[in-house]
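Marked as duplicate of an earlier ticket. Keeping the data here for the record.
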Amino acid sequence: MDIKQIEVTCRQLVDGYEDKGEDGVFGYGGKLNIRPPYQREFVYNEKKRDAVINTIYHGYPLNTMYWADNGDGTFEIIDGQQRTVSICQYITGVFPYMLKFFENVKDPVERSKVLDYKLTIYVCSGTDTEKLKWFETVNIAGEELTPQELRNAVYHGTFVSDAKRYFSKSNCAAYRIGKNIVTGSPIRQQYLETALKWICNKQGINDISFYMAIHQNDADALELYNYYHEVITWVESKFDVPKRTKIIKGLDWGALYEKYKNDKTLDKAELDKEITALLKDSEVTNKKGICVYVLTRDERYLGLRTFGLDIIESKYEEQKGICPICKQHFELCEMEADHIIPWSKGGKTVESNCQMLCMHCNRTKSSK
């Protein structure tokens, strides 16, 4: 690994600046790739953006930036994308600073403060592995990357480039069909991460990185998108997605699809009728678990109400510590509150429906 320090003025940086949106951003006479495949989209808010320009006008030092030397006379940003974009956008008139666009700054001294401001750049050259390892290191102190952004850095190639077309652009195909089902932001790579988790589950792969390593040089990501589309279509066929977005969005639909995709008993209208009843049931405290429950029938997903300490202590005293099933005496800490009539048969979490059972009897009873 070879690392050298250079100085670049803002004038040089903005030379040839071109923003092609999600297809790339370039500067430094067209030689600098400001948004390489592994970089996230521009996410600085207005306050941070203005802080960069304020620093320049006052002549204060900006944090060091890092570039990678591609070995052919071109470079790509490892760290400093957002500071670079802020500088270039201000000078090219994308936004004003202190209510004034740069083109309206007529004082040559003031203009020179910006254009001749010197940025400190460390340029590294070496193997891809060395450069990407450095990328992970220097970004620790910057704007935090999402896990998937880091994976994109390590495994960037034809697969990631094509996957970003489906999953990582504003209003991309994955967002359009899954926005009511999948959480997160496409440009922060969370839709891509979700799709990868789903297909890894299908293929029995425990690590997304392993899948990406295998497919790094694939010509396209069509297999990934087709599977994502398959899962979304199934969810829509079983649930009223627009109506139930609040309880549907963000669930692990990939795993649920693989387990229940061939269940012919699942009827959309019947499921929605049951969901309506569960949403109205005061015993159900975890509404987000309802969709999983109607598939799995596992009551743990519902967060059913439990008896309060006052009821527990009252029932223990009433029973004098005797378990009504095994007739043995136990300390309070050795017993558990049980619904005499279970929730599934209409039982409520009220004192008259409570009994104290020893742990063994309660768990044996619950498992029947």
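See parent ticket for discussion. The chain has four domains: 2-145, 158-241, 251-302, 309-366.
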